[in-house]
Amino acid sequence: MRKVFVVGLGPGAGAQMTAEARAALEQCEVIIGYPVYLDLIRGDFPDKTYKSTPMKQETERCTMALQEAAEGRGTAMVCSGDAGVYGMAGLMLEMGAAYPEVEIEIVPGITAAIGGAAVLGAPLMHDFAVISLSDLLTPWGKIETRLRAAAMADFVICLYNPSSRKRKDYLKKACRIMQEFKTGDTICGIVRNIGRAEQSSAIMTLEELGGTETDMFTTVFIGNEQTMRLNGKMVTPRGYDTSGQRTIV
Questions:
Q1: Which listed residue, of 23, 130, 147, 217, carries a Cα 20 to 30 Å from 244's Cα?
Q2: Distance CA 144, CA 163 (A)
Q3: Quick one: which H or E segment has residue 159?
Q4: What order of strands is seen across the sheet that includes strand 156-160?
Q5: pLDDT tens per residue, range 183-218
Q6: 140-152 vs 170-178: helix axis angle to the nearest 10?
Q7: Where are the domains of the chain?
Q8: What is the pTM for the complete model shown?
Q9: Domain 3-110 belongs to what topology?
Q10: Residues 79-106 pLDDT 10s
């Protein structure tokens, strides 16, 4: 089988992995990915051959997967969440052009925005934007432009990669930009380690969010003008009236 599955494991694998993703991994001989993600699935697929590369060696990882498939071994490239949302799907398709004999199939997964939203309640019921604060591949100036545009349009905003050891103040900077267009009492939420044993969450105001410590395993949700805290949940109304008819918000 000259084929590579590019598989989204969901935010925490396990119960949040789709049946389609599990079926793809079951038929593969070799599973390739970042070590943290491989560790999430080794117990479920103990008979597979696992191969990895460190962070910042994504192209080498793709080459490894394509070469394994070209040699006839059923191969999967795994990613956290959805492979097509800040994952490896795009790079695999780009590099796969040099391997026309290898079929590439993208298998969707639950991205952190969806998994985290379910933990908090229903923050994404209306239009929303997803923005990564990582400037590893995107200049910070462009990230700032996107933050301002989304805040100005009053989107609910989901932030990936809000901070790291080298980017400790990036979430604080993003919150200052948000407050150019959103009030300090805008309802926000965070979820850490979505779908994993260490999962935790909190709901707070935008002003409080600016002083909150986060990491690369945290997903941040910033509400719009209508977002509210309701019975311990973060809820963005869709705009239905009491009779069940949709109204314009």
A1: 130
A2: 15
A3: strand 156-160
A4: 128-132, 156-160, 218-222, 187-192, 200-205
A5: 999 999 999 999 998 999 999 999 999 999 999 999
A6: 30
A7: 3-110, 113-235
A8: 0.92
A9: Cobalt-precorrin-4 Transmethylase; domain 1 (3.40.1010)
A10: 999 999 999 999 999 999 999 999 999 9
